[in-house]
Amino acid sequence: MDRDASLPLDRRLRQEILFARERVYHFAQPTPLERLELPELDIWVKREDLSPIKAYKWRGACNRMAVLTDDERASGVVTASAGNHAQGVALAARQLGIQARIYMPRSTPRVKQDAVRKLGGDLVQIILSGDSYDEAVSGAKDDAESTGAVYVHAYDDLQVMAGQGTLADEVVLSGHGPFDVAFLQIGGGGMAAGVAEWLRTYWPDIQLIGVEGEGQASMKLAIESGEPTPLAQLDIFCDGTAVRQAGSLPFEICKQHLDRVETVTNAEVIRAIRCLWEGLRCVSEPSGAMGLAAALKCREQLAGKRVLVILCGANVDFLQLGHIAASEGAANMRTRTIRVRIPERPGTMLQLLDTCFAGLTITDFQYGKVDDDAAWPIFTVSSEDPETLAGLDGRLDKGDFEWTDLAGAIDVRFRAIPLRSDLLAHPLFLRLDFYERSGALHDFLDQRVRDRANLCYFNYRQSGERIGRALIGLDFASEQLREEFVAELPPHGDGYRLCEPLPSDSAARLTGRPE
């Protein structure tokens, strides 16, 4: 319902946010605003992750459905969503007694489907349609056209935008303002538009910065192009903001109020997720941390300013947490991935670790023997000190090592570790669980392996646990030397918790040799 379509869009939106004030709190309560303690920064976080659906989307969905006429309610509603908006529609459907059909991509995790069913009960029907959000939207709109149901758009709707704007009203009324800068993440733009309109109304001098992922900057493209334009490619790591084309109504508001659009990388988002965990003990979904990611990226410009960021959601898939935690973006340290050429003879790997890698943390180590004369191990190393990491080049060059930077190498990312079994004489593969402390892995190799065998295989990636786990291959000159090594090797020792040979069938599969 648009009370006066003759008014400019910004005035209509302000008017509707005022009316939304009365409606949305029949469905849920305001969310808190908390200060995030960070050195030299004054950042406040709007905790939309503490809403009934763990995201802000309930506001727009509930506001839109609350103004449906009796005939529209009887016809039911239909929408498309991959998660948060669907939960908002389900919440409103149950409280208002409205039948809702929700189209979701077939790839939608079951945890999100279950959340929608729990919120909506028997009033909600989930229809899995297509493999992407765009395909789900197409199915939902076809449904609405053929059945007469009301299509509830996730962002390109005045009432939806107004509902999202109520979170800005809570910020204004919190007493913690005025804010100098606000970072507003953008998917289709509904939240950014509603919040920007309200904050600009009460704090005219506030700097409003839109935030998008580098691979999903549809609003930035729209502003540059002068109209909403579809992206050719779409990164979906920040799935809550993965929208191929900005909404038409949000675009009109955002181009008027945003001072600029900042883009962030997935690694920067992951670091922000970690920052929120360490500072507020909350787990954000990737899209929810984008605003903070941009603030941290621009921290030098924020000295002495009061900054608002919005934790817009916490509906992260449990299985995705492992990827986030293991990613190099989660570390506070800088990292590099390089391949080094060393002679294929006993002791050279340890010599490399003792010299060039001194003072660095090895977070990933991949190696498989593919040549009798030379080895090309791949290391990902990190350090809190950028000078120590930068000095690696000089140390490698001084040692006359041939090396290559492998940043972004796809075979490294997917851990494609080659190994030629025909070059192995008497191999032994070990599972090693060692304590993640400085020197533990080095000490094991130095004390147990040096000068006794050639390292022919190594597969290790830091997981963030206190225990590191590696799969190691050693090649011996004779069967007798291998048997003596196994006989003398204690299963537990200084610096490691477990070391045991792989069963023969596992070793055979690894090398491709028949048992």
UniProtKB/TrEMBL annotation:
<dbReference type="Pfam" id="PF00585">
    <property type="entry name" value="Thr_dehydrat_C"/>
</dbReference>
<feature type="domain" description="ACT-like">
    <location>
        <begin position="428"/>
        <end position="503"/>
    </location>
</feature>
<dbReference type="InterPro" id="IPR001926">
    <property type="entry name" value="TrpB-like_PALP"/>
</dbReference>
<keyword id="KW-0412">Isoleucine biosynthesis</keyword>
<comment type="pathway">
    <text>Amino-acid biosynthesis; L-isoleucine biosynthesis; 2-oxobutanoate from L-threonine: step 1/1.</text>
</comment>
<protein>
    <recommendedName>
        <fullName>threonine ammonia-lyase</fullName>
        <ecNumber>4.3.1.19</ecNumber>
    </recommendedName>
</protein>
<dbReference type="InterPro" id="IPR045865">
    <property type="entry name" value="ACT-like_dom_sf"/>
</dbReference>
<dbReference type="InterPro" id="IPR036052">
    <property type="entry name" value="TrpB-like_PALP_sf"/>
</dbReference>
<dbReference type="InterPro" id="IPR050147">
    <property type="entry name" value="Ser/Thr_Dehydratase"/>
</dbReference>
<feature type="domain" description="ACT-like">
    <location>
        <begin position="336"/>
        <end position="408"/>
    </location>
</feature>
<keyword id="KW-0663">Pyridoxal phosphate</keyword>
<dbReference type="InterPro" id="IPR001721">
    <property type="entry name" value="TD_ACT-like"/>
</dbReference>
<comment type="similarity">
    <text>Belongs to the serine/threonine dehydratase family.</text>
</comment>
<keyword id="KW-0028">Amino-acid biosynthesis</keyword>
<dbReference type="InterPro" id="IPR038110">
    <property type="entry name" value="TD_ACT-like_sf"/>
</dbReference>
<keyword id="KW-0456">Lyase</keyword>
<dbReference type="Pfam" id="PF00291">
    <property type="entry name" value="PALP"/>
</dbReference>
<keyword id="KW-0100">Branched-chain amino acid biosynthesis</keyword>
